Amino acid sequence: MTETQRERAVVAKRVDSGTPDTAEIRELARAAGYEVVGELTQTRSEDPALHVGEGKAEQLARTVVREDARVVVFDNQLGPYQTYNLGNKLPEGVRIIDRFRLILEIFGQRARTRKAQLQVELAQLRYELPRAEAKASLARRDERPGFMGLGEYDESREQDIKSQISRIRDELDRIEETEQHRRERRRESGFDLVALAGYTNAGKSTLLRRLAADVDVDENEQLHPDLDTTAESEDRLFTTLGTTTRRADMDRRDVLVTDTVGFISDLPHWLVESFKSTLDSVYRADLVLLVVDVSEPVEEIREKLVTCHDTLYERNEAPIVTVLNKIDTVDAEDVARKREALSALAPSPVAVSAKTGENVDRLCDRIHAELPDYQHERLVLPMPDETMSVVSWIHDNANVSDVDYGDQVVIEFEARPAVVEQSRARASDLAASV
Fold first, then answer.
1. Who's near 415: CB < 8 A, 6+ residues apart?
2. pLDDT (tens digit, 9 = 90+) per residue, 28-65?
3. pLDDT tens-digit map of 74-89
4. Of 11, 56, 268, 308, which one's alpha carbon is 20 to 30 angstroms from that of 254?
């Protein structure tokens, strides 16, 4: 969408105390394709009818008229009746979108895979369900169609939504089962699985491109043909919605790195839950790299780390290494100060610049140190016709240190426990065939 095609939007935010900050909601609105032409803020307790006060609602209406806006974006969650009442204050045809509806719009625009599209649809239905339930409850109680302008009550709508949610969950479970089989096959082939997690715009996609063995990190170069656009490195929110997996450029072991959907502040549980199958790529990894933007204020970084830990430690058993990214944008003293301030949440972090490549070699060393230990194995193989194919398989899936060919083949190697087990099974099959 070009700038001239963007709908003009006014952003609004209410906070109980303090000074409202509209920087993030402006970025979200732009990410959704809106042109932000004005804003309105208020510090006060929530008004049950309008969310903001009566006077602010009227001021909002004047701002919308003055700026010729067609959309109002609230950086708050609005109830259905608040939305309706605010709509009555605004010119006809002006849409009202709250924070979570806006996020769902962005997700919908970025969903390219079947899995991502299903997750967006699930989140939208979970957003709509309590509104349908509230509407049904009031309609039953009041027995008037169109109560409070919310439209005629359709008694089947609640059940329709619940049925759709059940159907989508079943399909997502099937997709996740397939993906889990794929992850297990990768592990059986000797790959360690590393997941990138963290807030959107922290630089996860740039770091993936820096670590990847087959992708040029230079953003001015044409993307590698296998690189999904979900791993493009851009300064915008929600560039990554699905997951992208690439083989890492590491000499000592075979590592696959997955870039996952970015977190964002103040997401409700129902929205995070809708994307849990994407987060399974994090939960089922051997190591998680939690990427944060070190150029942000230390209190903001701390708050984000707490939120990430709450999400990741819920189901994750793998070690988590915090990566302080974007050190090219701050001085060394600032990095040291923030490292010290965050030490309780991020012990022994690795400070890097994914953009320039600074200290990425140290990160690779840390990845190697944190991943599960390899097992050493020495196998003696008989010499039927199939022996060389087994030797070749071990070369492909392990680090072979020595091979002695004689009447028998003696091979020594290091590998993941699953690969060692498979190699023993193959050796047993060879012995049984002689």
1. 190, 374, 375, 377, 394, 397, 398, 399, 423
2. 899 889 999 999 999 999 999 999 999 999 999 999 99
3. 999 898 889 889 999 9
4. 308
Rounded to whole angstroms, the Cα distance separating 242 from 278 reads 7
Do 243 and 325 belong to one domain?
Answer: yes
Rounded CA-CA distance 98/139 in Å is 24
pTM above 0.70, yes or no: no
Tens digits of residue pLDDT in 272-301: 666 665 566 676 788 999 999 999 999 999
Last residue of a domain, one of 370, 400, 420: 370
- Would residue 65 count as lying in a domain? yes
Number of domains making up the chain: 4
* Whether 380 and 362 share a structural domain: no
Give the range of the structural domain holding residue 416, as residue numbers without chain letter: 375-433
Same domain, 399 and 361: no
* Domain final residue, candidates 343, 370, 397: 370
Q: Considering the domain boundaries, does residue 105 fall inside one?
A: no
What would the pLDDT profile of 158-177 be if each residue is shown by its tens digit? 889 999 999 998 998 888 78
| Cβ-based neighbours of 149, under 8 Å, separated by 6 or more | 84, 88
User: Which CATH number goes with the domain that contains 361?
Assistant: 3.40.50.300
